[in-house]
Amino acid sequence: MTALLRLSSAIDAVTAFIGRSVSWLILVAVLVSAGNAIIRKLFDASSNAWLELQWYLYGAVFLLAAAYTLQRNEHVRIDIATSGLSKKTRDWIDLLGHIFFLLPFCFLMVYLGWPFFWNAFQNGETSLNAGGLTIWPAKLLILVSFILLTAQGFSEIIKRWAVIKGLIEDPTIPKDLPPVVEGLETVAGLSNRVEK
């Protein structure tokens, strides 16, 4: 299990690096958007390439940060359905959900994503819009994002199993909450989140 936990830590480090790095693309997308708007208003000129670049940048952030979101336990959940359950039951739900839902979906997307990207790359597919960009980089982002999400899914399975077995502390629980935050979580009925 030690080797698996080391593998999980390595995956987590790569995921965190990519997740933090791509966040800067939001700033680039905003600058591209603002520049395009200014040029359109001042010079009555526009470019589909600039619009598509903006979409590519937002898409890159969304896709490449998905694994980081999973790692940070920030993805959308229906907590109202599980908040009354014990911590151990929620851990089992996470483990089984990752094994039977997340990984099969990721495998399917990687399997379908490869030919989707490769065909676009081989054919030099470009946007149908006049002056638009080449399409294959966007399709490559889809493939890469699901490869990263698959790896992070394996990492989460390893960590969740180790938590269930009592080998590690739950990495999704904040370790040093200030007393005010602990009190607010209890008042808000969120004490299950920090329950050990």
UniProtKB/TrEMBL annotation:
<dbReference type="Pfam" id="PF04290">
    <property type="entry name" value="DctQ"/>
</dbReference>
<dbReference type="InterPro" id="IPR007387">
    <property type="entry name" value="TRAP_DctQ"/>
</dbReference>
<keyword id="KW-0997">Cell inner membrane</keyword>
<comment type="function">
    <text>Part of the tripartite ATP-independent periplasmic (TRAP) transport system.</text>
</comment>
<keyword id="KW-1133">Transmembrane helix</keyword>
<keyword id="KW-1003">Cell membrane</keyword>
<feature type="transmembrane region" description="Helical">
    <location>
        <begin position="92"/>
        <end position="114"/>
    </location>
</feature>
<dbReference type="InterPro" id="IPR055348">
    <property type="entry name" value="DctQ"/>
</dbReference>
<keyword id="KW-0472">Membrane</keyword>
<keyword id="KW-0813">Transport</keyword>
<comment type="similarity">
    <text>Belongs to the TRAP transporter small permease family.</text>
</comment>
<comment type="subunit">
    <text>The complex comprises the extracytoplasmic solute receptor protein and the two transmembrane proteins.</text>
</comment>
<feature type="transmembrane region" description="Helical">
    <location>
        <begin position="21"/>
        <end position="43"/>
    </location>
</feature>
<keyword id="KW-0812">Transmembrane</keyword>
<protein>
    <recommendedName>
        <fullName>TRAP transporter small permease protein</fullName>
    </recommendedName>
</protein>
<feature type="transmembrane region" description="Helical">
    <location>
        <begin position="55"/>
        <end position="71"/>
    </location>
</feature>
<feature type="transmembrane region" description="Helical">
    <location>
        <begin position="134"/>
        <end position="151"/>
    </location>
</feature>
<feature type="domain" description="Tripartite ATP-independent periplasmic transporters DctQ component">
    <location>
        <begin position="31"/>
        <end position="161"/>
    </location>
</feature>
